[in-house]
Amino acid sequence: MTRRAAGPVPSHNRRYRPTSVRAGLWALAFVAMLSLRPYVALGDGDLCLNDTGQPRVTVVLFQYAGTEHGDEVKNFFSRFRLMLQRQLETIPGDIAYRSIGSVDLNTLRVFFAGPDTIQNLADRTDYSSRDGILEVLRGDVQRVGQRFQVTSYVFLGERKGKLTRPEIAISMPIHTAAYANTRDGFTLISTYALAVDAHLRQCPGPLVTALLDSARNRITTIEARGGEREPAFDDVKRAIQVLEMELSN
Known about the structure:
The chain is 45% helix and 17% strand. By secondary structure, it is of the alpha/beta class. It has one domain (44-248): Rossmann fold (3-Layer(aba) Sandwich). It is globular, with a radius of gyration of 24 Å.
């Protein structure tokens, strides 16, 4: 008797049909594909008209004052950096596009730049204009009772859009109910910066609008959640509205 090649053993009551197995696997793969969030691929007609320079996908994080010494505060700052990276990674899931021109949203990252060397406005403006940089974070960490209070200064430079100032201050605790609003606040600012950058690069209106919609949804979530939130978020909300009106004209 000829020995069957290694593989699934057919039942004695029915014939083994490898094509049926393959068909079942294809069906499972198809169902899994349908469960994924649909992304819109960009065609040649969707290229941004002023898409020059290295894509701005990097959030630069300088060492916050007060985090240089002591294991506890160093560990806290490391967790803070991880939170920022994880929040950037949530942005692609809110947008129906894989990329905004040359900016691949899946490559957004936090880069730790070491000690703060850009403490005056001219230095921050020059640094933020370098290729690849979306925004720059500086700040300080202070102990308040048993917890740490973080004050961050997010410098957007040319990505300030309709904001009156290029820098946004966020001073909120990283704990309990306030943590969710703080976390979403950083994501809100990064998404807004991406929208303004897309507008500056003369990307198609739907791409800019998709980012503005995502930023506005973050504000809605923060407002619905209630609790402590940064007043600067209202400035970002107004800036989004002004830019949306400009795009609609």
